[in-house]
């Protein structure tokens, strides 16, 4: 019933098409391998464990972006999903318009994590900062630091560019350099690291 409602919700407007659905993570891997979709929505605790098959899905079609759709707000589940390489983590209470917006955002290269979950992960990580964070902060340019500060506050690339008076392409350039220095793979991990390094950003 949930899957049927989700399909109806994400298909409500013409720019998103659902090309297949499956009952298990194993089936998801096979569908991705044969159909090569842009995005897969994956239940965290589906049959044969969705989180354990994220890497298999990414290997089956590397360009794909994975959005976890789950009821779990467990910090371990969230961190394991992010470490596995998902591009989004969405709670099942999200509305149809919210889901469509998230899908479009992820398709555009963004990563998504609800702000309250970012805050929860921040609380888990806030005591883990150390001297290495000072070194990371010192390695960042002024522009990279500005971009990371705004990223951690939830702004999109376009919004960051508008605020700093530069192009979206310039923002992507600074983020790419910052990701390498922070040793992170995506916006969510970068935001979490920024919140750890600069705790005042959370306020």
From TrEMBL:
It comes from the Bacteria. Pfam families: GerE, Response_reg. Residues 133-198 form the HTH luxR-type domain. One of its GO terms (molecular function) is DNA binding. CDD domains: LuxR_C_like, REC_NarL-like. PROSITE patterns: HTH_LUXR_1, HTH_LUXR_2, RESPONSE_REGULATORY. Keywords: DNA-binding, Phosphoprotein. The modification 4-aspartylphosphate is found at residue 43. GO terms for biological process: phosphorelay signal transduction system; regulation of DNA-templated transcription. Residues 1-107 form the Response regulatory domain. The keyword DNA-binding applies. PANTHER family: TWO-COMPONENT RESPONSE REGULATOR. This is Response regulator transcription factor. The lineage of its organism: Bacteria, Pseudomonadati, Pseudomonadota, Alphaproteobacteria, Hyphomicrobiales.
């Amino acid at each position: 019933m949930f899957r049927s409602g989700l399909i109806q919700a994400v298909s409500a407007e013409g720019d998103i098409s659902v090309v297949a659905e499956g009952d298990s993570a194993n089936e998801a891997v096979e569908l991705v391998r044969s159909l090569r979709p842009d995005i897969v929505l994956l239940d965290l605790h589906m049959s044969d464990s969705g989180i354990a098959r994220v890497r298999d899905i990414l290997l089956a079609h590397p360009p794909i972006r994975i959005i976890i759709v789950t009821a779990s707000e467990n910090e371990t589940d969230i961190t394991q999903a992010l470490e596995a390489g998902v591009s989004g983590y969405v709670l099942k209470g999200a509305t149809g318009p919210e889901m469509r917006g998230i899908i479009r955002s992820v398709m555009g290269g963004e990563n998504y994590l609800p702000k309250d979950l970012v805050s929860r992960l921040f609380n888990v990580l806030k005591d883990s900062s150390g001297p290495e964070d000072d070194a990371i902060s010192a390695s960042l340019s002024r522009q990279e630091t500005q971009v990371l500060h705004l990223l951690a506050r939830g702004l999109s690339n376009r919004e960051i560019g508008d605020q700093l008076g530069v192009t979206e392409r310039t923002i992507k350039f600074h983020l790419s350099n910052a990701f390498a220095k922070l040793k992170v793979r995506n916006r969510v991990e970068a935001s979490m690291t920024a919140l750890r390094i600069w705790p005042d950003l959370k306020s």
